[in-house]
Design a protein that fits this description.
five-stranded mixed barrel, 19 strands, 10% helix, 31% strand, nine-stranded mixed barrel
Length: 375
């Protein structure tokens, strides 16, 4: 192990620039100073393979003999598992090398850019391992016996990896486009679809609500307390794996983030009284081969980040399945007469999932969000 004094380790965590990327910022990487980097070596002590981020723990022994217990953040358990990573890779006592960015306030925390375990090859943060599963979509029927498109099954947004065009910025891109983007044959996208809300003009009340979201305590932030943010954001963010079950009277949408929605196909109108919730109340109908879902009855909150919505939020989703690619695209139109002066219009898409559906464990472990201290 690298032997440094505690003071030297703290100093090392405050030096040398590295890459800053938009997707990291959206994950809350503002906790980490991505203009600096750190290189550490030690012995692995444990792993938290959880969402919204996994954490690897290891001890670094200083030249003075004192042990510095480090904790460094990786991607979510969902995305790691889809990429072929597993907890079995992290053996307690193994030698570990980490390169990453230091935490702004906690000198014993960092975010992982590269990771070396024992004598294994070094892993990049977004690396796809050889045992990541592929999906045979030829065996999936496009229609159910009743003639309706077959939406049942497990779905996830295509995995994203780091790439950049020649001379361009680095960012997250769909894995199927990465080679073409690196070769300069495709332009760099603005980011994963559905992760960043489109521009919306807010009313005065909306601007006040947005400022309140910016100032809210961590205990009120859904992303930092392992709660659902919205039916829009959590369908695709971070590559969550979701599941749809389908019948003539109801379509159930289970989010890997922990929300279950029921789309009532046997109702033509919402009930007069709805208990407000983050998921709202959904009714659906078929428009040809397109599933149209109308949802109201929301608790006030945020659609994504600091974009607020009131209890008058009204969301219409149009789900269309591509028969050739089996891509399930969702067109989105959102109205909120209290907070929005115009409509929120967006789209996203998912594909048959490359890993089984599961509601992943969620545990927010960022140092500043631990109310009772880290053990």
């Amino acid at each position: 192990m690298t032997r440094v004094t505690h003071a030297q380790l703290v100093a090392a965590l405050l030096m040398v620039p590295v890459l800053v990327e938009r997707a990291q910022a959206h994950h809350g990487a503002g906790r980490y100073d991505t203009s600096k980097k750190v290189e550490l070596e030690g012995r692995l002590t444990r792993l938290d393979f959880v969402n919204p981020h996994s954490y690897v723990y290891f001890d670094v022994v200083g030249a003075d003999g004192k042990v510095v217990a480090m904790k460094c953040e990786m991607r979510s358990a969902t995305t790691l598992r889809r990429s072929g990573w597993s907890p079995d890779m992290f053996v307690r006592g193994a030698a570990i090398k980490v390169k990453g960015s230091p935490h702004r306030d906690d000198p014993t925390a960092c975010t992982v850019d590269t990771l070396t375990l024992g004598d294994k090859p070094t892993l990049e943060r977004y690396q796809q391992l050889s045992d990541a599963k592929s999906v045979d979509r030829t065996k999936r029927p496009f229609r159910l016996p009743n003639g309706k498109p077959n939406l049942a099954g497990e779905w996830a947004q295509e995995q994203h990896v780091l790439a950049s065009p020649p001379g361009g910025r680095v960012g997250l891109v769909p894995i199927s486009q990465a080679a073409a983007i690196r070769a300069g044959k495709l332009p760099m996208p603005n980011g994963p679809r559905g992760w960043f809300p489109p521009p919306v003009t807010l009313t005065a009340a909306g601007r006040t609500a947005q400022e309140a979201l910016r100032k809210r305590s961590t205990s009120e932030d859904p992303r930092l307390t392992c709660q659902i943010t919205s039916i829009l954001f959590d369908w695709v963010f971070d590559g969550a794996i979701n599941r749809i079950t389908q019948s003539a009277t109801a379509i159930k949408m289970e989010y890997g983030a922990g929300l279950t929605r029921t789309v009532h196909m046997n109702l033509t109108a919402h009930p007069a009284k709805i208990a407000p919730s983050r998921g709202g109340h959904s009714i659906g109908r078929w428009d040809g081969d397109t599933l149209v879902v109308d949802t109201v009855g929301f608790l006030p909150g945020s659609i994504a980040g600091t974009l607020p919505h009131s209890d008058q939020l009204h969301i219409v989703e149009r789900f269309t399945l591509n028969q050739a690619t089996l891509e399930l695209t969702r067109g989105i139109v959102v109205e909120d007469p209290v907070y929005f002066m115009d409509k929120y219009v967006d789209s996203d898409s998912v594909l048959p999932a490359d890993a089984p559906f599961r509601v992943e464990a969620c545990r927010e472990l960022a140092p500043e969000y631990q109310q009772t201290g880290r053990k």
